[in-house]
Design brief:
Blueprint: H1 2-18, H2 20-25, E1 37-40, E2 43-46, H3 47-55, H4 58-62, E3 68-71, E4 74-76, E5 85-89, E6 92-96, H5 104-113, E7 121-125, H6 131-134, H7 137-144, E8 147-151, H8 155-159, E9 172-174, E10 179-182, E11 185-191, E12 200-208, E13 211-218, H9 238-251, E14 256-259, H10 267-273, H11 285-313
Parallel strand pairs: 6-7, 7-8, 8-9, 13-14
Antiparallel strand pairs: 1-2, 3-4, 4-5, 5-6, 10-11, 11-12, 12-13
Helix pairs in contact: 9-11
Length: 315
């Protein structure tokens, strides 16, 4: 479990840097509660295993994955375990998730390997205000001049994210249901809170092979080890926020599920099938439902365990 321990400490450090509300939600010093395990679609998962699936080890977070076209005008330019997506349009590009600041040069290289110019990134969006997804925003803006946009509920946490003391740029504050349009492509922000107050799931439509597909980029629905769902003084209704996020997510039409971590949509396995004939493996509506089922089962199990523990402590 050495890799898990290192990754968890890094994640907790990012949360601490993002402000007290995030630190209270997760981290090695937060109440862990009793062990939790769920079985979904024939596979058993512990809370830590699901967390580890998403973040991988330290090398996974910084090693560039082979850049590739996903579908339509959406490309992958992130690392093995931290997603970054490039949406290409005739009027410039949208980048979703800068990840850690140290990863920005690798993201730039991946964009260029695909034949695009990093300087053509006009808009920078993010999944949620944790350092492993948005720490690099200031550097991307410095290199490209892109407009940095974020949903209102995550702005306070983002403003506390200052790698090297650099202020976190926020050029436009978005709200739930608002669209971001560029070059004939529109991404819609859906507030799916819980993981952070402003965790954002992005949707868009793409045309590929003469057909239109609904794409959903999951912000995160994960209940990480250390998340305090019961008696959380910083976010008293955090369990309700999570529950609402699942309701919103299940109502979204989805043909192509993506996520802030590649493990959320089995990227590596799907990438291995590209170019081998057959349909595009990233078209996977069943995979979207399976991911929601897994994340919600874990949330319900963790919530029940923490409620039971709290009840016992109050006797």
């Amino acid at each position: 479990m050495k890799l898990f321990t290192l990754a968890l400490l890094g994640c907790a450090a990012a949360a601490a840097a993002a402000g007290p509300s995030l630190s209270a939600q997760r981290g090695p010093n937060a109440p862990q509660g009793p062990p939790v395990q769920v079985t979904v679609n024939g596979r058993a998962w512990t809370q830590q295993e699901l967390f580890q699936r998403n973040i991988g080890g330290p090398n996974d977070q910084t090693t560039a994955f082979t850049p590739h076209k996903i579908i339509g005008n959406i490309y992958y330019v992130g690392t093995t375990s931290l997603s970054s997506f490039l949406v290409v349009t005739p009027q410039g590009h949208v980048l979703i998730n800068s990840t850690y600041e140290r990863n920005v040069p690798a993201i730039q290289k991946s964009v260029e390997q695909l034949g695009f110019r990093f300087s053509d990134v006009k808009i920078l969006l993010g999944s949620h205000a944790h350092g492993d997804h948005q720490e690099g925003d200031a550097l991307v803006k410095q290199l490209t001049g892109a407009q940095v946009m974020a949903i209102a509920e995550d702005v306070p946490a983002l403003e506390n994210m200052k790698p090297g003391g650099k202020p976190h740029p926020i050029d436009k504050v978005l709200h739930d249901g608002e669209g971001v349009a560029l070059g004939g492509t529109t991404l819609v922000a859906h507030l799916t809170p819980g993981h952070t107050r402003g965790c954002t799931t992005w949707t868009m439509k793409v045309v590929d092979g003469g057909r239109t597909y609904d794409v959903v980029i999951i912000g995160s629905l994960g209940v990480n080890p250390g998340f305090k769902l019961v008696n959380n003084t910083d976010v008293p209704r955090i369990a309700d926020e999570f529950a609402g996020a699942f309701k919103v997510s299940r109502a979204l039409p989805c043909d192509v599920p993506l996520g802030s971590h590649p493990g959320m949509y089995n990227m590596a396995e799907k990438f291995a099938r590209l170019g081998k004939g057959g349909p595009n493996p990233f078209i996977d509506p069943a995979g979207y439902k399976a991911e929601l089922d897994l994340d919600e089962a874990m949330f319900r199990a963790v919530l029940a365990a923490q409620q039971k523990a709290a009840s016992a402590a109050n006797r």
